[in-house]
Amino acid sequence: MRKLQEKIHAVIREGRPITEEDEMWAEMARNSVKNSATALNDTLQKLAALTAAMAGGLVVLRDSAVPERWRVAVICALLISLTCSVWGMYPRKCRVKLDDYRSCRESEQKAISLKSFWLKAAGIGFALAIALALIGMISNAC
Q1: Predicted TM-score of the model (pTM)
Q2: Is 19 exposed, middle or buried (0-12, 13-18, 19+ CB in 10 A)?
């Protein structure tokens, strides 16, 4: 986004008209910013559903390849991932001055960064659960 802004400012400084390519890149950047919160929310929803299904499966399946002590650790990691996913989807309130462009942009960027943080945390919890399950399966096989 910053490179695009610099390019547009260079075009304006040079005094040349904006080309179709410049306009295309600007439109792509606007769409990317506009759709990023929706994409993050969709990803959080899918991760929450996957995590809940895996945790439920581990609770129901008593005779799995993962030993009991490892199964408890995996379920705890999955619950942490589920909590982070749900917390990331939770809508936040913020005060926005609708007549101030910067205020709107800052609130949108804050929402996107919060969703990104919770998605990363949920992903780490999910990866930890998979790693613990693999370790438990390997220790059970040995």
Answers
A1: 0.72
A2: exposed
